[in-house]
Amino acid sequence: MYTSSLEQTLRRKIDFKTKPLGALGLLEKLAFRIAMIQKTETPVLSDPTIVVFAGDHGIASEGVSAYPPEVTFQMVENFIAGGAAINVFCRQNGLGLRVVDAGVRYDFSENAPIIHAKAAPGTANFLREPAMTDVQLAFCLEQGALVVHNLRRDASNVVGFGEMGIGNTSSASVLMSLLTGLPLDACVGRGTGLSNEKFARKKEILAEAIRVNGVQTDPREALRTYGGFEIAQMVGAIRAARSAGMTILIDGFISTAAALVAFRMQPNVLDNIIFSHRSEEQGHALLLDYLGAEPVLQLQLRLGEGTGCALAYPVLKNAVAFLNQMSSFEEAGVSGKTEEQRIEE
Ligand SMILES: O=C(O)c1ccc[n+]([C@@H]2O[C@H](COP(=O)([O-])O)[C@@H](O)[C@H]2O)c1
Ligand SMILES: Cc1cc2nc[nH]c2cc1C
Questions:
Q1: What ipTM did this prediction achieve?
Q2: Is residue 13 domain-resident?
Q3: Is residue 183 part of a domain?
Q4: Distance from the alpha carbon of residue 162 to the mean position of ligand 2, in angstroms
Q5: Domain count of the chain?
Q6: pLDDT digit string, tens, across residues 155-189
Q7: Residue 198 domain-assigned?
Q8: Domain residue limits at 227
Q9: Ligand 1 in reach of 168 Cβ (< 6 A)
Q10: Is residue 221 flagged as an active site residue?
């Protein structure tokens, strides 16, 4: 297999740090990935930012969530006030935060510190008709890309994507099943915490929705039919961030479903994506496996909002720091392995 000279330089740089070969585990892989994304042996993470896309879902009126749909609006108000988990973790870890109204049912005040990109006040109920029109989908893909272009212009080179949308695990599960070919039951979970009875009903409703609207295996058509405005904007944002050469952090189950759609449209997006954590939501582990992903953290989270990204970011920072700052055996005068021994292993 062809290995570039940067790849070789990086392997050597990591292997000759003062540690047993491979002893920094996943940190070594992260440092390598980020350096390859930035095409340099001395990567820098600048202006790290979390973007939370919010949208309402027509399917939420079918009782597929443990919480009422108005929580989407209320939680965005909470993000604006600075009181949500994502606000806390961004502050703790020195991350910027942008919140996007991709399609919340109610309107925010015009001067609220959010990005106004509402496709419509919530998607249509995909138990009866496709979630969105072609025009709405195109708008969302463009808006997501625009958010990223503006971040990049402001010198950010690492971005984490999260979401807020009551009912959106339903969209994510259907997208996962259609685009991976895995059985629906393996892709549906309890979301915000459904009871056994409501969980069984959610699975029936989603199976019925697929009977009504069809087995769409084209990623764009699947997204239009079963997606959400926040998921569609994440897809546009992920593709734009790949094109802009940014390091992309993905949050939980719903964000990973957006990454799956983006991957099916443009497989090279995976080159720039780091999956921040493995969520508790049933289906996430399977989806990560499908994508060949090795998540940074496993904290039993199932919150969303980009919280996994904000928590994983310090690990990325440490990976880059060891690559840039740690001494080599030669620099520190420590006895290491010869190049031959290293390559043999
Ligand atoms: O990120 C995850 O893995 C995750 C797992 C379960 C639920 N959520 C969050 O909960 C909401 C969706 O859950 P539900 O039950 O309303 O479909 C949405 O706002 C997500 O951010 C998020
Ligand atoms: C309170 C609450 C906060 C959330 N944050 C993301 N999804 C959420 C769902 C609920 C219900």
A1: 0.99
A2: no
A3: yes
A4: 12
A5: 1
A6: 999 999 999 999 999 999 999 999 999 999 999 99
A7: yes
A8: 49-319
A9: yes
A10: no
